[in-house]
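Section 5: illustrative case.
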């Protein structure tokens, strides 16, 4: 099974945070290094959401690095508040559950979603402190799928002197707000990776039991190959 490399998972978390912010943030200026076409995207569009919030999140991580290094609780609070604001955790969790989620109650899916998100943030959230926040974000394209019900935003995280890291977002509209339900870093899907990983445990136990095992640390979302 292909897993998300540790470095890429750090980028995944940063990428997920990049769009996890209230719509009011869209009034902020976009990255001046971004292509004109992306910068000119309508306010509130998926592309503009990715571009504006990516810049803001990276700037916040840099400006509060010393604080977050000393106060990990503040870092966890920052991650949780941003991540929960716009990442469609429950819908994403249903996709991770796959066939095991068919007919599952919303309550069971939420328990699983919370356990998975908390596990990832606890294990890898601190790695954001090692992230190069001098990254530049470039939105390459915005592609409507399924008649516009889903949008794929393709972007790159540009590192000086290094190859760009491709990051794609799959987003859907919930009410009037665009929400992310999958992030693909270097072509590796968050949803597919963890669907493969938790398939075997879910064949043996119920969703709440697997969620309890994740919460207790008996099962862990694996980021790197053994």
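Designed sequence:
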């Amino acid at each position: 099974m292909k897993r998300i490399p540790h470095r890429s998972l750090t980028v995944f978390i940063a990428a997920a945070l990049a769009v996890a912010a209230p719509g009011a943030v869209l009034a902020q200026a976009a990255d001046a290094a971004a292509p004109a076409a992306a910068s000119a995207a309508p306010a509130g569009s998926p592309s503009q959401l990715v571009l504006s919030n990516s810049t803001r999140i990276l700037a916040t991580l840099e400006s509060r690095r010393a604080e977050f290094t000393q106060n990990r609780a503040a870092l966890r609070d920052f991650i949780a508040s941003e991540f929960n604001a716009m990442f469609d955790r429950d819908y994403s969790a249903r996709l991770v559950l796959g066939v095991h989620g068919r007919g599952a109650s919303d309550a069971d899916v939420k328990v699983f979603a919370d356990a998975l998100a908390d596990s990832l943030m606890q294990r890898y959230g601190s790695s954001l402190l090692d992230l190069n926040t001098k990254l530049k974000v470039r939105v390459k394209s915005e592609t409507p799928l399924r008649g516009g019900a889903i949008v794929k935003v393709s972007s790159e995280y540009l590192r000086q002197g290094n190859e760009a890291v491709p990051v794609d977002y799959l987003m859907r509209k919930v009410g009037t707000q665009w929400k992310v339900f999958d992030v693909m870093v270097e072509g590796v899907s968050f949803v597919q990776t963890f669907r493969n990983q938790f398939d075997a445990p879910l064949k043996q136990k119920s969703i709440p039991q697997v969620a309890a095992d994740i919460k207790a640390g008996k099962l862990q979302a694996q980021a790197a190959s053994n």
